[in-house]
Amino acid sequence: xxxxxxxxxxxxxxxxxxxxxxxxxxxxxxxxxxxxxxxxxxxxxxxxxxxxxx
Length: 54
Prior knowledge:
The relative contact order is 0.06. The chain is built from 1 helix and no strands. The radius of gyration is 30 Å and the shape is elongated. The longest helix has 27 residues, at about 25-50. With about 55 residues, it is mainly α. The termini are far apart.
């Protein structure tokens, strides 16, 4: 009698969960404020340097 074939485990396919869509956009305001600050600092630096380099 032949030995029973080794049974390979079947791949587990979990049920896909519903995609959670977050509506918390509080981080967007903070990011835009940071971009605005960096932009203003950059423009200020360019303006000051334009007078210094003359």
